[in-house]
Amino acid sequence: MKKIKNLLIKKNKTKIVCLTAYSKNIAKEIDNFVDVILVGDSLGSVLYDFDTTRTVTLEMMINHSKSVRKGITKSLMVVDMPYNTYRNKSEALKNCKKVMKETKCDAVKLEGGNKKIVEIIKHLIKNNIPVMGHLGLLPQNEKGKFTFKGKSSKEKIRLLNEAKVLERTGVFAIVLECVEKKLSKEITDQIKIITIGIGASQHCDGQILVTDDLIGLTNSKIKFVKEFGNVRKTIRDAVKKYKTEVKSLKYPSKKYLY
Ligand code: KIV
Predict the structure, then answer these.
(1) What class does CATH assign to 2-227?
(2) What is the pTM of this model?
């Protein structure tokens, strides 16, 4: 709870930096530089090459989260609840409790803002489960091509209203995915909790990216992804050197022998 309070006081003061992690090694490297580490169900497409995040299971999320937990000392750790694990109040509470207990995360993230999901989130918060919301493009609901949200005035009104309802329900933050620029500003200005954008403009209180995209491991072609590094090249260079040294008997040299 203290970590969540510390996050909320950053609104309008400084931008909130968030990234995903699926393993201890990545979590350990990013922990010092970010406020929030999300174990996203994007791991389904990024690591397992699934066509949709719907194939991700609770067991997969728990196993990756246990690994991530070992790499975090300071950031707020949030775990995505995968598809079909929060279809009603009792299923959601049972599965969220399991995730919180087994992964020792600080909060869970659920997608959507319709009446049904709001009732489920209300129930979770009443039972002391901290919840991060997720509006705009909802990968668990998306069939086919991903498009940005907030084009029509009807959609704008719906999304703004859903954000306000989620705030009243008690979520501490909302991820806005692929939300039109002006709308993401409007939402951010009109709610007191924090908005975290991904493809949703600099007006959000914070930003999140999939770390594998940011470090250039995935070669992502998504419009909002900026590669801040080129880990693919680093891997290739190291493996090439290793291969050369194995072939030429340079490795393992005396230094590496027992
Ligand atoms: O699954 C995920 O990684 C996410 C973020 C990219 C917001 O939901």
Answers:
(1) alpha beta
(2) 0.97
